[in-house]
Amino acid sequence: MAALNLAVGIPHLSGQQARDCGAQASLQVTVTDDSGTMLLPGAVVIVRWSDAAELPVREIVGANGRLFLCISEHAEEATLWAEFGDDSSQQAVVGFEPGATREVVLRVLTENVRPGRLMGQVLDALTEDPVAAAAVSVRGRPGTVDTNRQGRFVLTGVPAGEHDLQVRRIGYAPLTYPVTVEWGHTTEAEIGLVPTPVEMEPLVATAIRVRRLEIKGFYERKHWGELLGLGYFFTAEDIDRWRPSSVASFVAMMVPGTTRKLGNRRMSRGFSGCPMAVYLDGIRLKPGELDGFVKPFEVGGIEVYKGPASLAAEFGGSDAACGAVVIWIK
Question: Are residues 181 and 101 in the same domain?
């Protein structure tokens, strides 16, 4: 995350040629470093509309570090942030008024180190069964957590950098394994403990999560959803492994009881099924629109909920009685 300076008003558009937006609202975004003194040409600004059924905007700022947009008359509010290489700014929520220009300055953090998080699962290396009550810690850091019945654990507030992850459980050989934690990210580890006295190398696999999905809460919902059996969750790696022709066909193939038109057969007597609610980056789409807006290689995560009882609160409502399919772009 990063420091943010948000200025709202009707300013001069110095250093940039503003377009005539007429009676529409307009938005000027300036992207700087954390100090606010250096402009960052080439940074990418992402705009997500909160109350309009429009696709998100992803634009590169100009040589003067600024981006100017005319806002649709249907948009009243948006969430936006900036990305520059591996760094990003905080999110800003901005409201719009017809004929007014909103100015936002996004400061990208490029120097300070922020803590990350370690999350994972401990398994028996021979049987692949979850190992409960294993003690997990970071060498040199206070605090130890025990794995739950599914062998899962979470370590928060871990400083960015190289660390030694330590795992101990009676009946297993102790494990010490190097991991790299990046600021603002969650590093996920799958650990195989070796029962004593069997002699074999411990097995560890780590992966860095996509920041945008982290911000949107995808990994948190995936963790608890899989733990409690509330839905189906797929990452970009799952999609790449199957190489589907479309996102809808992938969902129909991987989730029992769903159709290629994203209908829920279990909640309908018809062949096409009960229509499920479909969201793309939080925006509700009409039935049949999904494959026209996004290709499989663009998808970073998919959430599928088969009924209202399992729906995450942000995707609930009377229009989601048949369940929901939630798509997140990388």
Answer: no
